[in-house]
Amino acid sequence: MRKTIFLFLWFVGFAYGMQDTTRIKSPSNLWQNFTYDVGSMFTAVGDSYLRPIHWNRNQWAQFGGVIAGTGLVYLADDETSRFARAQQEGVPNLVRDYGEFYGNPANNYLVTGGVYLTGLFSKNEKLRRTGVLLVASATSAGLLQQVLKSVAGRARPAAERGKDTFDPFNSNRNYHSFPSGHALLAFTNAYAIGKQFKNPWVKAGIYTLGAVPGISRIWEGQHWLSDVVLSFAISVVTVESIDRYLDKKYSEKYNDPRKKLAWDLKLSPRTVGVSLAF
Prior knowledge:
By secondary structure, the chain is mostly helical. It has a two-stranded antiparallel ribbon with strand order 1-2. The chain is globular, with a radius of gyration of 19 Å. 65% of the residues lie in helices and 5% in strands.
């Protein structure tokens, strides 16, 4: 595992150094497009990990707010887990199967890779860029959650050890609860795809579909609510970071340069929430 992570990070650094990140290039054929896109995926992942170095005081304060909000949810993890697991039998099998299938990493890459290849062979730059965004975001967030799972070693609800049990670097999957890989990958896809639409109702529908795999892991006893909440936050930040980076790599733009990502943590006795403005 350590060798794999080292080789991956080395390749990210190598690709990052080989590419010009300040100029938009326009490859002229299929192979050039493909190699350019793969290079952009790797350098985007590298940039997403380096991005906190460039955060200002306000962004670090916002990050702290997200951690504080997750901590508040953590306090109620035992209660929310018991409630969700009690509803499990009432959830339609179709919804349960969808949550397990779509959040699976192998199936996730089938979807993201399919989007990218469709854009590549159809010579549709917008779809190509969307595919690059999907693959890079899933890779960045996916690797991060694997590291966090191992370092945290949090027991899953199904292990019946309680929300406060942590055993760092325990290889048993029952201690890989924090954060949720299913929630993170599914919502990363949903958030990236939702950026292609301006209609808020369409966005809401896509986000809802993307949230189901994470929520399903709570009623299946595989994750706590705080695991899923932090996974959603990681998804949003990762997609936004990589999408802004890709603005320098592709002429197709999704972002208004006048707007920046802004977090607003809302806390009250009955509400814990994070609103995002772009």
